[in-house]
Specification:
The chain has 15 helices and 17 strands. It is an alpha+beta fold.
Length: 553
Amino acid sequence: MFLRSMTTRNTRLGPATLFAAAFVAVAFTAAPALAEPSQGMYFAEKEYVPHSLPTFAETRDKLPNPIYDENPLYVQMYWKTWELGFRNFYKPEPGSGFVSQFIDAAFNQNIFLWDTCFLTMFCNYGHPLVPGIGSLDNFYAKQYEDGEICREINRATGEDFTSWVNADGKSLFSRWGRFSVKYVGRDVPQPPPRLTLDALNHPIFAWAEMESFRVTGDGDRLAEVYEPLARYYRALQKYICQGNGLYMTDWASMDNSPRNAFLEGGGTAVDTSSQMVLFARQLAEIAQRLGKTEESEGYRREATELTERINQKMWDPERKFYFDLTVDGTRAPVKTVAAYWTLLAGVAAAEQADALAAELRNPSTFGRKHRVPTLAADEKGFVPDGGYWQGAVWAPTNTMVVRGLERCGKDDLAHEIALEHLERVAEVFQATGTVWENYAPDAVAPGKPAKPDFVGWTGIVPILFFLEYGIGLKPDAPNNRLTWRLASDKRCGCERFRFGGHTVSLIAVPPDASAQATRVMVRSDGAFDLRIERDGRQWDFRIDEDTRELSLK
């Protein structure tokens, strides 16, 4: 990200000067240095079992093979994206303490919590052939005894990014933001955190785990990660919950966004607060699946209570939008994509969801040529060609928006935005030969600035968005079900589609002189339920371990 790039890699923006400025002395209450910590005690995997990294050449013919005669460019971009992704698979370095092979953020020498959670989402479709959800194991292996996990860890050494470590045992502060946190209406938590506010961001581990579960159906993994997740959730409650019951963040959410000035000193964020609702709901679901009924009910109560606080304090009934709060409780004036986390978390009620959806069609705010800009176009500081978090379109935030729209029943709009995002990324791919870190909202172009060959979370678009919204295959592995929203009028489908432990090939062939109905050829190595949706109609089939031809009459 923008400030991340300025702090940890060379850029044309003069990182040494900018980073030095971030370390201007700030008055914090001194405290004794913390004792040497223990890490990884809640995660069962303790060491890496060596094995060969997969290569693209050896794995290509085992990965899902999309068929999409309507637009072969999508297929070309899909394979190029996988090829780029394979360049960012790594083994743990000796002595790093990492326990799994992993896909890297494609950014610098560090792994990032925020990035990695999104990276796993497209890697789910290569599971178990490629490092994907197991990439999160390395974060769980670095979890502190109090539950904290640093969002940025050195890839080679396994050590937390030095600047995000609270080595002197001060109360919570942001090193980059150069402010100490003022807790209002609650006591300063003790003992102090091991990490800075810069490091305690993005509580989306559980979302990544549930996205993986949807595709793989691996219930054993949920049992393995439940305690690390629960401990992390409680650590965030302890340290970044403000006295108003909402959650703090700083620049790390959207590096150079105009919203950040209003978060200084202990302001609360609509995205972080909503992510904690989402976290609680998903912990409740995992706990229920594990038979921990009482814990599940507790998380649900906490999600409900936090939802009420967000709607009471952060929803503006006149502007019909959610806003961050300053440390004194005033609503910040800046409209950003952060508000859309309320959809995914189930915070927004029907009326509020309708208002948020309307803004996605409003050309004056978020309904730009390439949706969804991270800053509304009518806000001061909006940059039409991107400007990083001052308007650029990003795969992770668009994934959040699309999934959020689905969560509140707005499937048609979700599908529309997903396909638009896929098409714009493909148009830029055709012009440049690669995929980019972010994109311009008002042009078919990379954002300025944006890093090329970014796989990286942009891999979501050519892989996950193509398979789920272009071709239309949506798995529900826990229920052994696959839904195919078949829209193309040309040959379409996917060979070697992987979900729920099955490898399935599905190819739809449009009517011709020899057949008056669409024919669907299905080959599977296991039984599952298939629903096909087309033109407002649906067909349900039980697919056995064989090859079948289906007719959509």
